[in-house]
């Protein structure tokens, strides 16, 4: 299952980049969760939760909400995809131009937990202090 898990998550990232609600939602279980650090810059900027629950809510954020903060020039540099069974760890750096015109660059680590070939839970880690400085000054 390890290679299949990596492939699923790699293909999910491709779907995320399309900002197409239906393509994105197809990768998640109905009761999926996306957990990021409380009060992270994205959640504060969007005035939304840091713990998103449900396939539709996650797909809505990735399809529509993401671009409200990360306005243009979004680039992901992947440093590694690691898998064991139904868990996949992704290390990456994201750069972008924010809606306020500021440059953004931060390192991330995501842990994807799959259930029956779909993403059931994502745990997101990043440098929250650095992000707040870039977003809010």
Give me the number of helical elements.
5
The coarse silhouette is globular
Percent of residues in β-strands = 35-45%
Identify low-pLDDT runs: none
| Alpha-carbon distance between the two ends | 44 Å
Q: What pattern of helices and strands is seen along the backbone?
A: HHEHEHEEEEH
Can you give the mean pLDDT?
A: 95
How large is the radius of gyration? 14 Å
Q: Describe the biggest sheet?
A: 6 strands, mixed
How many beta-strand runs? 6
Structure description:
With 137 residues, the protein is α+β, with helices and mostly antiparallel strands. It has helices at 2-18, 21-25, 41-46, 55-69, 128-136, and strands at 28-35, 51-53, 70-84, 87-98, 103-115, 118-126. It has a 6-stranded mixed sheet with strand order 2-1-6-5-4-3. It starts with a helix and ends with a helix.
In a nutshell, what does this entry contain?
The chain has 137 residues and is α+β, with helices and mostly antiparallel strands. It has five helices and six strands, in the order H-H-E-H-E-H-E-E-E-E-H.
List the helices and strands and how they pair.
Layout: H1 2-18, H2 21-25, E1 28-35, H3 41-46, E2 51-53, H4 55-69, E3 70-84, E4 87-98, E5 103-115, E6 118-126, H5 128-136
Parallel strand pairs: 1-6
Antiparallel strand pairs: 1-2, 3-4, 4-5, 5-6
